[in-house]
Fold this sequence. Notes:
With 457 residues, this protein is α/β, with parallel strands linked by helices. The protein has helices at residues 71-77, 97-111, 128-137, 153-163, 188-205, 226-230, 277-281, 329-341, 368-380, 406-416, 425-429, 447-455, and strands at residues 3-9, 15-16, 32-38, 65-66, 81-82, 86-91, 119-123, 145-149, 168-171, 209-213, 233-238, 245-253, 261-267, 270-273, 292-299, 302-314, 322-325, 350-356, 388-390, 393-394, 400-401, 420-424, 440-444. Helix 5 links the parallel strand 9 and strand 10.
Amino acid sequence: MKVKTIFECQSCGATSPKWLGKCPDCGAWNSFVEEKQDRIKAIKKDSGASVPQSLAEITLDSEDRLSTGIEELNRVLGGGVVSGSLILIGGDPGIGKSTLVLQMLSSLYAANPELKNPALYVSGEESLKQIRLRANRLNIIGESVNVLSETCMENIFDHVKRMKPSIIVIDSIQTVFTQEIPSAPGSVGQVRECALKLMLFAKKSETPVFLVGHVTKEGAIAGPRVLEHIVDTVLYFEGDRGHAYRILRAVKNRFGSTNEIGVFEMRDGGLAEITNPSELFLSERPQNVAGTTVVATVEGTRPIMVELQALVSQSTFGVPRRATIGVDANRVNLLIAVLEKTGGLHLGGMDTFLNVVGGLKITEPAFDLGIVATIASSFKELPIREHVFVFGEVGLSGEIRGVSHAEARIKEGAKIGFREVILPESNLSRLNANIKPEIKLIGVKDIDEAIKAALNL
């Protein structure tokens, strides 16, 4: 059989008959690696091909989802693990991916006593003794968890056929390989083929499969982009090593809401759930200090109260600095221009720094009013009243636009103890009358009204 050599991009999977310095598809530099491919591949007809069925004839089992025993993980997954689903968990090295899946396997069997077959935890990076040391640190006995240190997919499937596990974890997908492809483990071809094999197995056997994935320096999951298209759910572990908080975010979920988050705290005994993240993020909030605001944001279906801090000071350079942590810098620059043009604040010669406390990354437009109020508070050196929180979208002409989930945001603030909320006038007119006695509602139409209401001018 004649073998030919091709060059494949390790970022996007594009192929070329010769080496290229820059990938024409994704633009990555020095990403082409030489790989060998069989010129003729034997195509075997699948004798067990599926038969078309009417949508009405498909039956759903009552036990369609398995509880992981971790409520924050259940929330992110949309209520639990769906049978036959392929779930990818990505994150920075050392952030807690392996810790999370090991804790999940332990609590899964406590929450689902009907499971008879053990789980299979396949590690391609650690030895069995290393995994046992982690389990001891996490106080996990692991009687229902079988551990396998293996990187060859064919050997893994031999063990799977013999064990018939109830759930499988592959840690990590970049370390396993299949003998059908001569390229090295972690290459685009290997990652794609191994993920496809696991996906076909999960769908046919109705066995949930968890994949742990490495991330690149840009923060994306390493391997071809098709990897995220193959899986049913993509979860990203976010957080700074300087903070104890960890955010598990769903960026893709075929069985639940996207952008749902779960909040954990890394402790000596592993990851602990944070059931009320609003109180956690506001626990160290300073009182009567200019440049700090509480903003009601919504992640997925969960309203969260977060603290936003701003520092506005006279610039000592010709070009003022703009630095942000947790919010989009382009959005902040846009709102600063609106404040200068419409709000009358002279920010052209001022350095502006913004920070979302707790390590959260906020992208929704309802955060605009919080950014405007915080910058105005720091610029005027007037504190915002401590029992007030805000939310709303700001337009380019300075108008305050309505946002979604207004009632959920207000109820979350009232539950924590806030007494006033500054919100868009359009949201105020559509609110349910039942929530009005709980908290004082202040509707605003533009940023002038919002700043006056927030700073009590």
